[in-house]
Design a protein that fits this description.
This protein is α/β, with parallel strands linked by helices. The protein is built from 25 helices and 17 strands. It binds cobalamin and iron/sulfur cluster.
Length: 614
């Protein structure tokens, strides 16, 4: 075995699928735009923990993402001193099989299990039992842990270079979206102590700062400079608004890169009471002035007084959602079904309250006790846990029993909720356009020059892009309510931004045709949508240039199947023809062009970068 060589990996494929037959790694398809018919955004994501660990040690390292079994065993045969597995409880069957294999075929390899899978295993097995599988479980933050493991300075600043991008699109627009979403970790952990929350438990109820506000903005600039088509940065933390001093320090560096405001915004996390306190201190305007474009907000339930969580007791969710939308900030509202107080008498009232918030995106889940949390311990003591296999340990698990609802019902109510949101407000992309039109108007009136002169451009480009989907949304909407909303959005676009350009109209015509074909497929072959599968990728950190923005080499050892290559070729041809047609149209109708929007659209098509951030 060669010396000190680290292998980091996710669990092996196939991954379990979720109860509604969607993919674990497709946050928008499984949750955020779940029931949006052909407008559902199907997306992919990467394994950030493994990259951040590899980026903060000095030994050569390889990261495997979604390996198939043979890929994994072939890699193990290369001989590694240490194997770090990063996984969630839902993967534990696969992870334990991997550990057994390594114990047998590469006994000298040290196995470290980290992340939420480690926490869950440690919670249900005693040390003697789990030691059969892993040498160590890393509880909490892993960068410092791995540095200590390799005898490095654990407290040196955390390095974060560019991670692989995530992204998505309605599949009829592109099945191979170039990632439009960058990822950065600003902090880990939360002192909130909500009993159901794995995060507060894993990080022992504290927040660990991973980047200073200046470093965070520099990281966003690096994404923008390296990948100009990135339009969202997903900033991982648990509750940004709990840290008002940290958050407010982002405003100045952000404003000093006005070009950033024209191209990207960032995804933050906030809990209601802390958003309220932040706004009391700094005002609403501070939120867009820091570049925040999307906020994940845990609403959890209408009945905040019954929840008894500190984050959810003083502020009215309607007030928060309305104000954010007014400024162009999109929301991901989360709602949970299966609280102890839920019964047939109140659950639909609760759900409809959530629908009334009109979140731009949503996450509706069942209350799911994860091993290692106080909720799990309490329900176990009360004899209220179903024995579910690891593969059902996720946000829709049927783990709880003795509720005021039948056990199966919580899943149906959640699915009904997604559907209700779609039928009431239309697809998330339509809601997004409405909020972004607000953002355009709000920034145009703003006294802040960065918002007025730069952010307006961002909103204009985004609205122009989503406008090209409006015709299809109208035609293939689920009902008259949504059909009319699509028409009203068109009217509002024309009144706010202006007449669509001939380039936009041409693109919209193509979108309507593609949407028609897709819609027909869903009618004649309802099982046409399958949970998305991720390819296996191998990232090599050979330490030749650790300071480069992308310090790894990406390999696709399995290559692409014939079917995938064929689909990619068909799409490439379509986009080649579209590019020529759009350029010709712009040349022929130059007087009616809006250069900002047309260049943006044509640029995305030319660079084959069509894809939607959040
Ligand atoms: C981004 C995100 C996603 C993304 C990408 C996830 C990914 N693979 O990286 C997507 C959208 C795909 C996703 C999906 C899911 N997610 Co998610 N997700 C998150 C989120 C917001 C951030 C995770 C993240 O990337 N953090 C940044 C990295 C650097 O931190 P980290 O993963 O904690 O890793 C650190 C340490 O744990 C440790 N560590 C981790 N692995 C290892 C390995 C070794 C060897 C060592 C030494 C250390 C170590 O070191 C790292 C650096 O300190 C968290 C909530 C949160 N704020 O943390 C939820 C969260 C992790 N997700 C969760 C869940 C449940 C899921 C799903 C199962 C969905 C579901 N609906 O049920 C799927 C499963 C995904 C999969 N991989 O199969 C739960 C996990 C709870 C649990 N006990 O299982 C969380 C905590 C949300 C919550 N509050 O409950 N998720
Ligand atoms: S506020 Fe959010 S992140 Fe913090 S403990 Fe509660 S649920 Fe977890």
């Amino acid at each position: 075995m060669s010396e000190e060589k680290a292998l980091f990996t996710t669990s092996v494929y196939p991954f379990p699928t979720l109860p509604n037959d969607t993919s674990l790694t497709d946050a928008t398809g499984a949750r955020f735009s779940r029931a949006d018919g052909i407008f559902c955004i199907i997306s992919h994501s990467h394994s950030f923990a493994t990259h951040i660990l590899a980026q903060n040690i000095t030994a050569p390292a390889v990261v495997l993402e979604y390996p198939r079994w043979d890929d994994f065993t072939a890699e193990i045969a290369k001989g590694y001193s240490v194997l770090g597995i990063s996984a969630l409880p839902v993967h534990l069957d696969g992870v334990l099989k991997m550990c057994r294999y390594v114990r047998e075929h590469s006994p000298q390899t040290k196995i470290i299990l980290g992340g939420y899978a480690g926490m869950a295993l440690g919670a249900v097995q005693d040390e003697k039992e789990w030691k059969q599988y892993a040498d160590e479980i890393c509880h909490g933050e892993g960068v410092r842990y791995m540095r200590r493991f390799f005898g490095l300075d654990a407290d040196a600043p955390v390095r974060q270079k560019l991670m692989p991008k995530g992204g998505g699109s309605p599949p009829f627009i592109t099945r191979f979206p170039k990632g439009a979403i960058g990822f950065i970790v600003s902090g880990l952990g939360c002192p909130g102590m909500c009993d159901f929350c794995s995060n507060t438990a894993l990080y022992d109820h504290t927040r660990i700062t991973m980047l200073s506000p200046e470093e965070l903005v520099r990281g966003m600039v690096q994404y923008h400079e390296t990948f100009p088509h990135v339009s969202s940065i997903f900033v991982v933390d648990e509750d940004h608004f709990r840290w008002p001093d940290y958050l407010s320090q982002i405003r100045e560096p952000w404003q000093s890169y006005p070009e950033l405001s024209e191209a990207v915004d960032w995804f933050s996390f906030g809990s209601l009471d802390f958003i309220g306190a932040f706004v009391d201190r700094f005002g609403w305007d501070a939120i867009p002035e820091m570049g925040i474009g999307v906020m994940f907000i845990g609403v959890e339930s209408k009945f905040g007084d019954l929840l008894k969580y500190k984050k959810r007791s003083t502020v009215d969710p309607k007030w928060v959602f309305k104000n954010l939308h007014r400024m162009g900030v999109r929301t991901v509202g989360s709602w949970v079904c299966g609280w102890d107080f839920h019964s047939h008498a109140n659950v639909m009232e609760d759900l409809n309250y959530f629908v009334a918030l009109c979140p731009t995106y949503q996450q509706l889940t069942r209350l799911s006790p994860f091993p290692g949390t106080p909720l799990y311990d309490r329900l176990r003591k009360e004899g209220r846990l179903h024995d579910v296999p690891w593969e059902n340990m996720h946000f829709w698990s049927e783990t709880q029993k003795k509720l005021g609802l039948e056990d199966h019902e919580t899943l149906n109510i959640v699915e009904q909720g997604y559907d209700l949101l779609y039928r009431t407000w239309g697809p998330s992309l339509l809601r997004r356009m409405d909020v972004e039109l607000n953002g355009y108007e709000y920034c145009r009136r703003s006294e802040n020059a960065v918002l007025r002169e730069h952010r307006t451009k961002f909103f204009k480009k985004q609205c122009g892009m989503v406008w090209t989907l409006l015709g299809a949304m109208e035609k293939y909407s689920p009902n008259g309510i949504v059909r009319r909303q699509a028409r009203m959005a068109d009217k509002r676009y024309r009144a706010t931004i202006g007449e669509p350009t001939p380039v936009m109209v041409l693109m919209s015509d193509l979108v309507v045709r593609l949407a028609g074909k897709e819609y027909a497929k869903t009618i004649f072959n309802p099982s046409f949508y399958r949970a998305k599968e991720e390819p296996f990728k191998r990232y090599v950190y050979d330490r030749t240039d650790d300071d480069a923005p992308i310090p790894y080499r990406t390999e696709w050892p399995g290559g692409r199947t014939f079917k995938v290559r064929k689909a990619m070729a068909v799409e490439a041809m379509r986009y080649f023809a579209l590019e020529k047609a759009l350029k010709a149209k712009r040349a022929a109708t130059r007087g009616r062009s809006d250069p900002l929007i047309d260049d943006y659209l044509i640029g995305m098509v030319t660079d084959r970068a069509f894809g939607f951030g959040l």
